[in-house]
UniProtKB/TrEMBL annotation:
Belongs to the MqnA/MqnD family. MqnA subfamily. Its EC number is 4.2.1.151. It is an enzyme of class 4 (lyase). Keywords: Lyase, Menaquinone biosynthesis. The keyword Oxidoreductase does not apply. It catalyses: chorismate = 3-[(1-carboxyvinyl)-oxy]benzoate + H2O. The keyword Lyase applies. Pfam families: VitK2_biosynth. InterPro entries: Menaquinone_biosynth, MqnA. Catalyzes the dehydration of chorismate into 3-[(1-carboxyvinyl)oxy]benzoate, a step in the biosynthesis of menaquinone (MK, vitamin K2). One of its GO terms (molecular function) is hydro-lyase activity. This is Chorismate dehydratase. SUPFAM superfamilies: Periplasmic binding protein-like II. The lineage of its organism: Bacteria, Bacillati, Bacillota, Bacilli, Bacillales.
Length: 286
């Protein structure tokens, strides 16, 4: 990211990130910037390859590219129990699903690998996983259970009357006693070194947007009703249930997730979380 190039900022297209982005306006930044809204899998690739300079990405994708990324402080999408938008739909019990065939969404590695950790470590199963487009009825035609996340999971949860539903955030909490962080905000190390003042401004803009968004959820809830469906009351409850901070408790749960992912061979290396901070900006100025 050079002075003459626009900063490319990633936005998760799912509603769970809306309180952080609702008041985020890239045109208000004092330099050129563009906002790219995509499902997590595409954002993850853009962040890992350096095409996106700063923004949200799934926690697992951060782990895979942590040597190239710096976390932005106090920003995440986390839950301390039910997350209400990451569901395993199953024809039978969880134990039966863990020994059967599970269709998994192809849009986020964090949730897929959380499911693998829970089914294999917590339940003690060894299912066969098959990748599929996020469509509940199509997935269940050939599988004993299926994983849906984000808005696909929310809509399927509203209409479902046939299948058992397991909230992965709730299952993780009951097994580990920890909350779970599903998405984080990060900047590429190269962008942070080349343009630290830009990263600082973007970080400040995200923090301000989060404060304003959480301070008044009404316009965000109304936007969700218009675009996704449901009621204002549903969306108030949904957003208030989530945590958008990234303090010690959130980091503890995420570190445990990374450890289990490494033990299962899902992550080839152990992860040490490193954060962007003002010291980098100060060092560059000196």
């Amino acid at each position: 990211m050079k002075n003459e190039e626009p900063a490319v900022i990633g936005k998760i297209s799912y509603t769970n990130s809306w309180p952080v982005y609702h008041h985020f306006n890239p045109s208000a930044l004092p330099f050129p910037a563009t906002l790219v809204s995509e499902v997590p899998s595409r954002l993850n690739r853009g962040m890992a390859e350096g095409e996106i300079h700063v923004g949200a990405l799934s926690s697992f994708a951060y782990a895979e590219a942590s040597d190239r990324l710096l976390l932005l402080p106090d920003l995440s999408v986390s839950s301390d129990g039910p997350v209400r938008s990451i569901f395993l739909f199953s024809k039978g019990t969880l134990e039966e699903a863990a020994s059967g065939t599970v269709a998994v969404t192809n849009t986020s590695a964090t949730s897929v690998n959380l499911l693998k950790i829970l089914l294999e470590k917590a339940v003690g199963g060894r299912p066969q996983y098959v990748a599929a487009e996020p469509d509940l009825e199509q997935m269940m035609k050939t599988a004993d259970a299926c994983l849906l996340i984000g808005d696909h999971a929310i809509r399927a949860g509203w209409s479902n009357s046939r299948y058992r539903v397991t909230d992965l955030g709730e299952l993780w909490k009951s097994w580990t006693g920890c909350g779970m962080t599903f998405a984080v905000w990060a900047a590429s190390r190269r962008a942070a070194e080349q343009e630290p003042e830009r990263i600082q401004r973007i970080n400040e803009a995200f923090a301000a947007s989060k404060r304003k968004g959480l301070g008044d959820l009404e316009p965000i809830a109304m936007d969700a009703v218009a675009k996704i469906g449901g009621s204002e009351g549903y969306w108030y409850g949904y957003f208030r249930n989530l945590c958008y901070d990234f303090g010690e408790r959130q980091q503890e749960g995420l570190n445990l997730y990374f450890r289990y992912a490494h033990e299962l061979g899902l992550l080839p290396q152990q992860v040490k979380m490193e954060f962007w901070n003002d010291n980098l900006l100060t060092r560059v100025k000196k």
